[in-house]
Amino acid sequence: xxxVRIEIQQQxxxxxxxxxxxxxxPPGAGEVLLKHLAIGLNFIDTYHRSxxxxxxxxxxxxxxxxxxxxxxGHGVHDLKVGDRVAxxxxxxxxxxxxxxVAADKLVLVPDGVADEVAAATLxxxxxxxxxLKRTFPVQAGQTIVFHAAAGGVGQIACQWAQALGVRVIGxxxxxxxxxxxxxxxxxxxxxxxxxxxxxxxxxxxxxxVPVVYDxxxxxxxxxxxxxxxxxxxxxxxxxxxxxxxxxxxxxxxxKGSLFLTRPTLGHYTANRGxxxxxxxxxxxxxxxxxxxxxxxxxxxxxxxxxxxxxLESRNTTGSTVLIP
Length: 324
Known about the structure:
Blueprint: E1 2-8, E2 17-23, E3 31-41, H1 43-50, E4 59-60, E5 64-72, E6 84-88, E7 98-102, E8 107-108, H2 115-135, E9 143-146, H3 152-163, E10 167-172, H4 175-181, E11 187-190, H5 196-203, E12 209-214, H6 221-226, E13 228-236, H7 250-254, E14 259-261, H8 265-268, H9 272-287, E15 295-300, H10 304-312, E16 319-323
Parallel strand pairs: 9-10, 9-12, 10-11, 12-13, 13-14, 15-16
Antiparallel strand pairs: 1-2, 1-4, 3-5, 3-7, 3-16, 5-6, 6-8
C-alpha cells in the first residue's frame, strides 16, 4: 500500500514540508490501516515543524484525522473494516492519504458528525472538554476569560461554556474576529488594547475572574494574571504568540495567591477510558447542538505550506481542514 504524506527532514518554516510517496506495511498487532477522509490542522503542528516542540527527524506532521478502516491487525476486536473513526493526539503523521494507527487511539464517529467536523475539531473539542470540565470545572453563573475566542478551540469552548451557563468574556486580535466572536461570547475585548485587563475588572465589578484560559501565550500572560480574582487560576494551554517568558513565581503571590497550570490533552486522555469518555462528551455536545463548529478553511494536502502560513499569520478563523 502506498501513501502520500507530508514529511520534514529539518525544522524551520513552512517551506521545509515536502510531499512524498512512501510504502506502508500491513497493520501490525493492535493496529489498523486507515484511509484518511479529512485531516485537521492545529497550531501544535507548527510547533512540531518549527522545532518549538522537537520531534525526531525525519518526521511526519499532524495529530488529527478522520478516516475509514481498510484493514485490521491481529488482536483488534472492537473495530471492523468499514468503520468510520477519528483520532486526535498520539504520534505525529496525520498529514497523509493512508496511515497505520494504533487501534486504541481511535474513537468511532457517530453518523451525525461529518468527516470534516470530526477531523478538524476532535482535538479542539476534547481540549475544550478537559479545560472546562476538568482543569478548572466551570460552574453556571461564573464569568470567565477565554483568549483567541475566534480560533478553533475558542469557538468551541466559548459556545460550550455558554451552554453550561457561564458568562464568557472572549478576547481577539482584530475587529473582524471581534465581530465573529460576538456570536458566542457575552463580551469581546481586543487583547492588543493594553487596557483589556482593566476592562475585565470593570465587567466584574472590580473582582476579576476565577479563571483565564490562555492559548495565546506571551502576548497575554501578564494581562491574564492582572485580571484574575483572588486565588484565581491561569490555564496556559498554548503559545500562539510565542512561549511565556521566565518569571519569578513570587508574582503569583503578589497578585492574589494565584494558581498557574500548563495542561496538555495527552495527560487528560492518558488511558483508553479517558480518551473515549472525553470524545463521547464532545460528540454528545455536538449532537445536542450546544456547539456548532465552523470549518473556516479547506486546503488540499498539497497546499499545506500555505495553510501553515495562514495559520501562523492569524489569517484563519474557526477550524481548518486538509483534504487528502
